[in-house]
Amino acid sequence: MDSLTSINELFPSSTPLGNESANSIEDMDAQDFLELMVAELENQDPTKPNDNADMMGQLAQFGTVSGIDELNANFAGLSSALTGGQGLQAAALVGRSVTTESNLGELAEVPNAQGEMEYALDATVEFGSSNAGGSFFVQDMTGRLVYSAALPPSQGGQLPVRWDGRNAQGELVPPGTYRVSAEAIVGGQSTAVSVFAHQRVESVAVDGAQGAVTLNLGNGSSIALEEVKQFL
What we know:
By secondary structure, this protein is an alpha+beta fold.
């Protein structure tokens, strides 16, 4: 009786043992491997036992596959932990404000420095360079201008702005969504600059399968965590 020199000779890939879906050693699990090793030892020629080097090679091959499986399992666990960590971090944002690329802000009641409630819409004006001042504008969703104010000269950078919800006549306008914009005077010319409205984070949602975190904002919109421009 001839010696069997490998597992694949004893059990060809067309008729796998133990796991019908396994077509190679790479597809085997620990139970499949042990069954095949025992079968190979039982059926070897006693006068011509398998070479130890061959046996060690098979063990090393399986060990590599097992190591990859273990590594994949570890990565899956790490991914779950990172998603959970993202969820906890995002949950800490509830009640705080963020800025995005949007210039649509929400006029709503917020606590002032004394803890009293008042209407306000907060935004950040992005001055790209030094300027001689400028203007801040608020429009309703029909495009009608409801408020404007002068901005002080700046050396560049960011300027926080708060609108109290009152028009030029001092009347409180209805709460809701408004569009904010601004201009800066640079070299004697008025130039449009970016304005980012502040949005309050009302709740968060975590997609465990995709590892995505979504922030639900006070204006009813939802954004991905990576879309946040600045945490305030």
